Sequence to fold (499 residues):
Amino acid sequence: MANRSWLLLVGVGVVSAVAAAAAVALATNIFERKQEAKNPFFRVVELTDDTVDPAIWGKNFPLQYDMYLRTVDQVRTKYGGSEAVPHTPTQVDPRSVVAQSRLEEDPRLKRMWAGYAFSKDFREERGHAYMLSDQTFTERQQVTHQPGACIHCHASSYTLYKKLGNGDLFKGFDAVNHLGYFEARKMVDHPVSCIDCHDSQTMQLRVTKPAFMLGMKRMKAAQGVQDYDVNRDATRQEMRSYVCGQCHVEYYFKGPEKTLTFPWDKGLKIENILAYYDENPHKDWVHAETGAPVLKAQHPEFEMWNQGIHASSGVACADCHMPYTRVGAQKISDHHVRSPLLNINHACQTCHHFSEAELRSRAEALQERTFRLRNQAMDALMGLLDDVKKAKAAGKTDAELAGVFALQRRGQFMLDFIEAENSMGFHAPEEAARILAQSTNILRQAQVLVRDPTFKPEIPDQLPAAEGDAHPGPGVQGKTVGAPSGSGEPTGDGGAPVH
Ligand code: HEC
Ligand code: HEC
Ligand code: HEC
Ligand code: HEC
Ligand code: HEC
Fold:
């Protein structure tokens, strides 16, 4: 960003020089002021490509650092935020406050994940400050052995990868993936830090997490773009989402090396992802009630955002979750990353000229609809589990139920995809409704098939891979709609005002 606006302004300066010396002076003056407004900081300390500790960066950027520290706040919204629940510290789990248990809120989740660690402990996610300790102390660590690959999205891992790879980020990534979790855990100290999203010298946004770089490269290759390098080829507005896509995505651990992999070779739509898992056979676990080989979906915020109207209008994650905020005379990006519904004034009203109450009720209406459809799909899954249990008790074999298992795998993944996506449908309401309608349909057909083996299930409205790729948002196609003008100046509006 800095580079481009700098070049532009230098260009302006050069043309002016030919015209009049006074104009050069003016352009330079404007340039300096813009730099000042954008990045007014005193270099108190020298930062390097190895400075991990955010407190050190905070000496140069105290405003961003103060906001970053506020991610400890816990406030609940209707469908998001989180609630601070007291926890009695124990030897294995010293946390004194946790977030509410989602398993207690909806016990059907335990049956959906029967036989998997998620059925033991799954909580509402909370602020970035907690990511490393919540991962370390979740009960899921006690019921199963997790790999070092988990660290990628819960710690500042960039310098560790460089160190273990002797300067080669990807070699270091490979080395950490297959370590045991606690072995890798000893080598990191901080949750996501400044260095994971920023270049220490220019403060430009950058991606530092190899799984995202590789996932994007494979997806672009499938679209005919060879050798895509996210840090070289993405626009600034794209980077304002890509830094979040480093972690807020569906993933799995591939092969015995436990390579953290984003299943995007065929695109970001759920049909593309399911087709990927068909071609690269993978199961996360075997369902304890039915015996079906099933998949767990994880936080596909990036994938779902990409299907929504905001992405196709060029609105980035940072526009809503890190909106520009005035602090004194300065406009800075709000590093208190949280639910935008706790900050509607900055997060939405820069673009939407409605009252706060109106915007909240529109967002909640979309969430309410998603929640109802999710509950219908969840009930369909419970009905299927009941029927399979009965059929097995009556002597049906796994071989006889193979067709049912395939439908359970597909329908359950579709439900879990929306369940695991943390906006309760807001990021892409139409897409969430479409997926949940399909999920319910597939799970109910599976139930019919249990009862009547001659029934011929039909999976409706299946998108061929090509169609799934036909409407990628600006985040995928390499073109940016509604990005801030080339000035690089914080404007706070990724698109034109809308009503
Ligand atoms: C147009 C604004 C907008 C954009 C763009 C956007 N989000 Fe959101 N996001 C929301 C809203 C609104 C919610 C619902 C918050 C709630 O229910 O409290 C939400 C929820 C979330 C949550 C759960 C927050 C919570 O408090 O539970 C996460 C995580 C998230 N978004 C990540 C992302 C990521 C990553 C991107 C980009 C890939 C993104 N969002 C893009 C508006 C946006
Ligand atoms: C691709 C990035 C990524 C990887 C890899 C990853 N996580 Fe997470 N994790 C996230 C994100 C994003 C959230 C917040 C959103 C959510 O909870 O859905 C999260 C939330 C969590 C939470 C808090 C909510 C909950 O589930 O109770 C725990 C605990 C957790 N992860 C543990 C783990 C463990 C253990 C592993 C390794 C098996 C792991 N994570 C691997 C990105 C990742
Ligand atoms: C290094 C991985 C990583 C990156 C990068 C990352 N997140 Fe997160 N995010 C997480 C994890 C993990 C959690 C859950 C932490 C927990 O529950 O302990 C989380 C939680 C959140 C929440 C929930 C906050 C709350 O109070 O409930 C929001 C919103 C969010 N992230 C948005 C974003 C946005 C927007 C970006 C990009 C600007 C981003 N994240 C970048 C891993 C990441
Ligand atoms: C999850 C990614 C992420 C992390 C972690 C992060 N930032 Fe940022 N930061 C951003 C984004 C996005 C912007 C907006 C940049 C843009 O629009 O070009 C930004 C902008 C900035 C800017 C430019 C001025 C402004 O506020 O817009 C500074 C300075 C900055 N961040 C400092 C920090 C510091 C210091 C830390 C650590 C305490 C930090 N950032 C951590 C994503 C991050
Ligand atoms: C950077 C500008 C921008 C920001 C910030 C933004 N929006 Fe939007 N929003 C848009 C645009 C553009 C559209 C598409 C409008 C259209 O074409 O009709 C849109 C559409 C919507 C819609 C209609 C969705 C649909 O499916 O038809 C809702 C509801 C909405 N926004 C709510 C919000 C909320 C709530 C926030 C804050 C969390 C928010 N927006 C933040 C630009 C923005």
